[in-house]
Write a structure and sequence with these properties.
This protein has 116 residues and is mostly helical. It has one domain. The chain has helices at residues 11-28, 33-55, 58-78, 86-111. The radius of gyration is 15 Å and the shape is globular.
Length: 116
């Protein structure tokens, strides 16, 4: 069975387009910026989890859950339940990416493939 990675090939440009759209909209409508970023990370996390289920790309297991967690952190910050500033949210986002791809790099070095 051929593995279908939604973030590879021509779909890579859709992902970049989605990022560009959310950056544009958050700058155009700064009052809705936090809501847009919650939506963005929910979409990205869900797409990663779907991708992991569909093709088994190793980092998606971590980034899917991590990006949904970032969306929840942003929501909790808006609701003033968790007092985070932009810097800590950026650290959370970068941590999800580094841990996810670091795990994939380690997994590929041991197994020869980035797919399970």
């Amino acid at each position: 069975m051929k593995k279908f990675d939604i973030f590879a090939g021509k779909y890579y440009w859709w992902v970049l387009g989605l990022v560009a759209l959310f950056v544009f909209l958050s700058n155009l409508f700064p009052e809705f910026s936090s809501i847009l970023w919650i939506l963005f990370f929910l979409i990205l996390g869900s797409a990663c989890l779907w991708n992991y289920k569909n093709c088994g790309r190793v980092h998606c297991e971590i980034t899917g859950v991590g990006f949904i967690g970032v969306a929840i952190l942003i929501l909790l910050t808006i609701l003033e339940i968790v007092p985070l500033t932009g810097m800590y949210l950026n650290v959370a986002i970068i941590s999800v990416i580094v841990i996810g791809y670091g795990y994939e790099f380690w997994y590929k070095s041991k197994n020869g493939s980035c797919y399970q």
